[in-house]
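Our consortium's second objective concerns turning raw sequence data into structural hypotheses that experimental partners can test. To show how far this objective has progressed, the report includes one record in full. It was chosen at random from the queue rather than selected for favorable results. The single chain below, 92 residues long, was entered without modification.
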Amino acid sequence: MLIDDVRDRASMLGYSSNMAMTRDRLSPATRNQALSALRFLYLEVLHLERPGLDEIDRAKAPRSLPTVLTRSEVRALLGASEGEPRLRMSLA
């Protein structure tokens, strides 16, 4: 983007829309870094207030549920172990 294009709010929102469309290929940290760069550009370099920047939500990393073993998997682990390791797993 050229500096003249950056002054245009539509260009900024188009850039953020492009970031949203490529979200599958970009990590949340990358998208947040780009948003922070835009904010810095507008506020610190161009000394412009851009209310549109506050309307853009920051990306959040997806949270995954912990992996839990099935009852049969636990039985298989206990069956394959013996001695102290088996005792420790049985108590856990």
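The partners drew two points from this record. Residues 3-55 form one domain. The CA atoms of residues 28 and 61 lie 6 Å apart. Both points have been shared with the crystallography group to help prioritize constructs.
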